[in-house]
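sorry for the late reply, my laptop died twice this morning and i had to redo everyting from scratch. anyway the thing you sent over, i finally got around to it. pasting the sequence first so we're on the same page, its 170 residues, then the predicted structure underneath. double check i copied it right bc i was rushing
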Amino acid sequence: MSSGSDPLRVVLMGVAGCGKSSVGAALAPLVGARYLDGDDLHPQANIDKMKAGIPLTDDDRAPWLAEVGRLLAPQGRLIVGCSALKRRYRDIIRDAAAAPVVFVHLAGSRELIGGRMAARKGHFMPESLLDSQFAALEPPGPDEASVHADIALPLETLVARIAAALSAPA
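ok and here's the structure:
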């Protein structure tokens, strides 16, 4: 999908707790990119809602998604962790980027991800919102530039497979 010097615009997507931050931190140096955690782009009002166990609305998400796309727009190699759960959310990102974006869907079972969320400390997203995330999830369609990644794999294996898929010819 890209060579080492070509622009690379990747969104690691999936429900909360699927490993976007861990995968992004491990993947970025492997593909010569920078990783940015989309959680850091949320306005405080969004974080406060999620901390309170209140799911975000589409109106809450729209400016955040557009910012993700704007950051992907410049030439370069960037990976952003962003839930991008619905197709219309990915469309906002693609439109704001005005360039090809590859979505890597970090997919796993409710049980696996729930266990990971229960074990993590200090994150604003409570496990109580996980079911609403799974209910909203629309995996990328066959017409979207995407990679499916099974998070049940060991991190090293998962990241190697994603890197291989991203470097494969389109």
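Residues 8-167 form a domain with the Rossmann fold fold (CATH 3.40.50.300).
thats about all i looked at so far, will dig more tmrw
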